[in-house]
Design a protein that fits this description.
This protein is mainly alpha-helical. α1 runs antiparallel to α2 and α1 packs antiparallel against α3. The chain has a single domain, classed as Ferritin (Up-down Bundle), CATH 1.20.1260. The longest helix has 30 residues.
């Protein structure tokens, strides 16, 4: 049985993931408007990943007979001072999400909710990758803030297509 305290926090995290989805959409639109198709595509993809994370959490709650709540979320930041700002915001967001996921793990452990602890483990691994990706991207964008072509080339070269992670939790509706 899923611990009520864990379920409550996971429902909050669904909102956090949906807010991250919206924030990444806003970043993608910003780069699209700047005619930076590689950065736009990168952030559109990131937005879909965040939405999928929320839906993985929804599916877990459904699978454990716990009510899943889809909350409203605040509007994202949609105007930026330069091409570096969205990536800096994204890195800060990923660091915050890492702390939120760590809180979920802590609660699962405190409640002896072993199934929920196992569920959260995938997200722990995912956050290490997300923070590393955004850290690297921020370094490149900061170094090349006046060289948009160099930024676009880096993203095109470094962002590999993801064939999916067979260890990832199921996505609701997927």
């Amino acid at each position: 049985m899923t611990a009520p305290r864990f379920a409550e926090q996971l429902n909050l995290q669904i909102g956090n993931e949906l807010a991250a989805h919206n924030q990444y959409l806003a970043c993608a639109v910003y780069y699209d408007a700047k005619t930076m198709p590689q950065m736009a595509a990168f952030f559109y993809t990131q937005a879909l990943e965040e939405r999928d994370h929320a839906l993985m959490m929804v599916q877990y709650l459904l699978d454990t007979d716990v009510e899943a709540v889809i909350p409203g979320v605040a509007a994202p930041v949609s105007s930026f001072e330069d091409v570096v700002a969205p990536v800096a915001l994204a890195l800060a967001q990923e660091k915050r999400v890492t702390e939120e996921i760590n809180t979920l793990l802590r609660i699962a452990r405190e409640e002896n909710d072993y199934a929920s602890e196992q569920f959260v483990q995938w997200f722990i691994k995912e956050q290490v990758e997300e923070v590393a990706t955004m850290s690297d991207l921020l370094a490149v964008v900061t170094r090349n803030r006046d060289g948009i072509e160099d930024i676009e080339e880096f993203v095109a070269r470094e962002q590999k297509s993801d064939d999916g992670d067979p260890t990832a939790p199921r996505v609701a509706g997927g």
